[in-house]
Amino acid sequence: MTGPTNAPDTPEPSRPTLLKALVRQRRWQAYPRFRREYDRVAAEVDRELVGTYPSEATYRRWLSGRIGGIPRSEPCAVLEAMFPGYTVEQLFEPRKAGADGPAGAASRTTTCGSWADMKPASYFTSALRALNDNDYLFGPLDVMPRAEPLIAEIGHAWANAKGRDRAELIGLRARFAELLAWLHQDLGDNAAAQHWADRALDWSYISGDREITAIVLTRKTQLACDMRDPDTATGLGQAAASAAPHVKFAAAATTYAAHGHALAGDRAAAERGYDNAHELAARSDGACEWGDWLNNSYIDVHRAQSLNELCDHLGAADTGTVRQFRDLIRTATT
Asked: Which ranges of the chain have pLDDT less than 50?
């Protein structure tokens, strides 16, 4: 455990730092929780950094801004990996009004931290996890300004990497591009989403990572549905299911392909697709971390959407989970 930073004998007035805002955003403000997260990230950066977290008194000074400088080098590397997109100098700056979290920080000109001082793949993996978490919390408008520069940074790191590191970085670049495809799709910008999905697919093939290839093909299947392109949706859905290294990917791709059949007016094929998706989802053993949202309720909602597309509105309202929600609402209002 590291000791205090080079703080002066007389503490400076309290000026809460950006670090405090980001810690609160992630709900890590309790010292034991912060210490656990610190060690988890430290293990990814360099095992020798595990245990270099600050004392509780120093940690409180970090948050309040009552420090006379930035921490020593070991905590700096971990902090920049914990909060991708921020340098340690920025983390210890006083937080500006209204800058509580990514929304207020998005307009700042930032670097991507000192990934050159650690294993790049570890840094960018942590960054991707943080961006996904922030998407759940704040949505695409807050995440996109950070995601695009990081793709460029991965490109710089990839150009100088060799061997296994090179393959790992191009796989990460594909995952970042897939995230950007989703963010644009979530905003309704299908053209931009298609651009990033195409880039992601190219990079996934170069990496040889079957998992990210299946994820990107699944993304492109869903996007084709949003663009009301049934032939592309059904074709890509079949390709994604065939490429899937785990049944969960196949279940998601089959769900979206089923809606593609509905868009084409083929109810029988759509119903078969949804039945198959339920069977595939039931076979998932939990070993795959991707797609924790994929369950029977998710598939039922898409089936209802397809029935609505096929003008069977009563059937849509009577579909599995949708029917359960309807009955709960009726019970609550009577």
From this structure: 2-12, 97-113
Question: For the chain, what is the mean pLDDT?
Answer: 83
Residues 12 and 101 in one domain: yes
- Which of 130, 271, 285, 168 is closest to 254 using CA atoms? 271
Query: 120 near 167, Cβ under 8 Å?
Result: no
Residues 263 and 307 in one domain: yes
Q: Which of 152, 179, 204 is a domain's end point? A: 204
For residue 115, what pLDDT is reported?
Answer: 53
Query: Which is it for the CA torsion 176, 177, 180, 182, positive or negative?
Result: negative
Q: What local confidence, expressed as pLDDT, does residue 5 receive? A: 44
- pLDDT of the residue at 103: 38
Task: For residue 317, give its domain range.
Answer: 209-334
Nearest Cα neighbor of 120 from 77, 88, 91 is 77
Q: What is the count of structural domains for the chain?
A: 3
- CB of 219 closer than 8 Å to CB of 197: yes
Q: Which amino acid is at 118?
A: M
